[in-house]
C-alpha cells in the first residue's frame, strides 16, 4: 500500500515538473512572438520616418539653372514686345527693348547684372543650366553696362564681336558700319571676332573698337559717346545691386547719363530748394533740346515751385517734352 502511495506521489511531482516546463516554454514562445511583433513595429516606424524625412527634405540639386529678372526700370521697357513689370522673369530666347529715355537693370542668379541703356535691344541667347554651360547675351542695338560679380563662363555677343568675360565690369556699344565699341572698366576680358583677338586687363576705363576687318586704331572720336553711356556712379550702382535681393521700385530718369548732366543736376538742386525761378534760368540753355529740361520747366510752372503758377505755359513745355517721348512728361500730361 505504501509503495503505491510513494509511486503516486512521485508521479504527481513528475507531472508538476512537466506542467511547469510546458508553462515556461509557452511563456518564452509568447515573449519571442511579442518581441518579434515589437521589432517589426519599430522597423516599420523607422521606415515611415525615413520616408517622411526624405519627402520633407528636397533632393540635392547639383546644377541650379540660372534665373534672371527685371530688378529696376524706368520708362518704357518691353519684354517680347509686351510692357514689363518689376520682378518679371527673363528666359533664354527673350528679347528686351528700351525706348528713348528709358532703361532697365536685369539681375541674374549667377552674379551677372546688365543695365540696358535707352534705345537699346538685347536677346538672352543662353542661360546656364549646368556648370558647363555658357551664359550668353547678344546686344542687337544700342549699349549696355555689364557687371559680373562672380567668375564663370560669360559671353556678350554683337554682330561683329564677342566679349569673353572673367568676372569684371565693362561697357558695350554697337555702332553703324558693323562696329563694336567697348570700355574695359575693371577686370579681365577677351575682345575678339573670327580673325582678331585681344586680351585686356584693366584697372580703370580703357576703350577699344573692333570691326570685321580688325581693331580700330583711332578711337578718340568714340570716347565722348562711351562716357555718356556709362560712368562710375552707374558701376557703383550695379555693385550695390549685386548685394541685395529686393527689386528697386520704379525710379526717376537717370540724368547722370545725359550729356547735360551738370546743368540738370544744378537745376534739380535748385528745385529741391524751392528756387524754381532760378532753375528755369539754368535750364533755359538746353530747354528745347533736352526732353528732361523741358519736363522740369513744365513741372515747376504747373506746380508753382518757387514761382507763380502758369498752367497754360506749363502744359506747353510738357508737350515739348512728351513729343520727344519723355516718359515722365507723357504720364504727367495723361494725369491732368
CATH architecture group name of the largest domain = Sandwich
Largest sheet: 17 strands, mixed
Which structural class should the secondary elements be placed in? alpha+beta
What's the helix count? 8
Fold and architecture overview:
- It is a single chain.
- This protein is of the alpha+beta class and 336 residues long.
- The protein folds into 3 domains: 1-60; 68-241, Jelly Rolls; 258-335.
- It contains 8 helices and 17 strands.
- The protein has helices spanning 2-56, 223-229, 232-241, 261-272, 276-283, 291-303, 311-323, 327-335, and strands at 68-74, 77-79, 82-83, 89-90, 95-98, 103-108, 112-116, 121-126, 135-141, 143-148, 154-157, 162-165, 169-175, 179-192, 197-202, 206-211, 214-215.
- The chain has a 17-stranded mixed beta sheet that branches.
- A hairpin with a 3-residue loop joins strand 13 and strand 14.
- Helix 5 runs antiparallel to helix 6 and helix 7 crosses helix 8 (327-335).
- The chain is globular and about 65 Å long.
- The relative contact order is 0.08.
Name its key features.
336 residues, alpha+beta, Jelly Rolls, 3 domains
Amino acid at each position: 500500500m505504501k509503495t503505491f502511495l510513494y509511486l503516486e506521489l512521485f508521479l504527481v511531482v513528475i507531472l508538476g515538473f512537466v506542467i511547469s516546463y510546458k508553462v515556461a516554454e509557452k511563456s518564452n514562445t509568447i515573449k519571442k512572438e511579442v518581441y518579434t511583433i515589437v521589432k517589426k513595429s519599430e522597423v516599420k516606424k523607422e521606415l515611415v520616418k525615413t520616408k517622411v524625412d526624405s519627402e520633407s527634405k528636397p533632393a540635392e540639386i547639383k546644377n541650379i539653372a540660372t534665373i534672371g529678372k527685371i530688378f529696376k526700370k524706368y520708362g518704357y521697357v518691353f519684354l517680347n514686345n509686351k510692357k514689363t513689370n518689376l520682378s518679371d522673369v527673363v528666359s533664354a530666347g527673350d528679347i528686351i527693348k528700351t525706348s528713348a529715355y528709358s532703361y532697365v537693370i536685369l539681375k541674374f542668379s549667377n552674379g551677372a547684372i546688365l543695365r540696358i541703356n535707352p534705345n537699346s535691344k538685347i536677346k538672352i541667347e543662353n542661360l546656364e543650366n549646368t556648370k558647363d554651360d555658357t551664359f550668353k547675351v547678344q546686344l542687337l542695338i544700342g549699349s549696355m553696362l555689364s557687371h559680373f560679380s562672380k567668375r564663370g563662363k560669360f559671353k556678350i555677343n554683337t554682330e561683329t564681336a564677342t566679349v569673353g568675360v572673367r568676372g569684371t565690369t565693362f561697357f558695350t556699344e554697337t555702332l553703324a558700319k558693323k562696329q563694336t565699341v567697348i570700355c574695359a572698366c575693371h577686370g579681365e576680358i577677351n575682345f575678339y571676332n573670327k580673325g582678331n583677338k585681344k586680351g585686356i586687363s584693366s584697372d580703370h576705363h580703357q576703350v577699344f573698337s573692333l570691326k570685321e576687318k580688325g581693331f580700330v586704331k583711332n578711337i578718340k572720336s568714340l570716347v565722348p559717346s562711351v562716357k555718356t553711356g556709362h560712368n562710375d556712379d552707374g558701376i557703383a550702382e550695379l555693385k550695390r545691386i549685386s548685394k541685395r535681393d529686393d527689386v528697386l521700385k520704379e525710379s526717376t530718369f537717370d540724368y547722370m547719363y545725359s550729356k547735360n548732366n551738370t546743368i540738370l543736376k544744378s537745376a534739380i538742386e535748385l528745385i529741391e530748394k524751392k528756387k524754381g525761378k532760378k532753375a528755369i534760368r539754368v535750364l533755359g540753355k538746353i530747354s528745347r533740346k533736352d526732353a528732361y529740361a523741358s519736363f522740369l520747366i513744365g513741372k515747376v510752372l504747373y506746380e508753382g515751385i518757387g514761382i507763380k503758377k502758369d498752367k497754360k505755359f506749363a502744359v506747353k513745355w510738357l508737350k515739348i517734352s512728351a513729343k520727344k517721348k519723355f516718359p515722365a512728361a507723357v504720364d504727367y500730361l495723361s494725369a491732368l
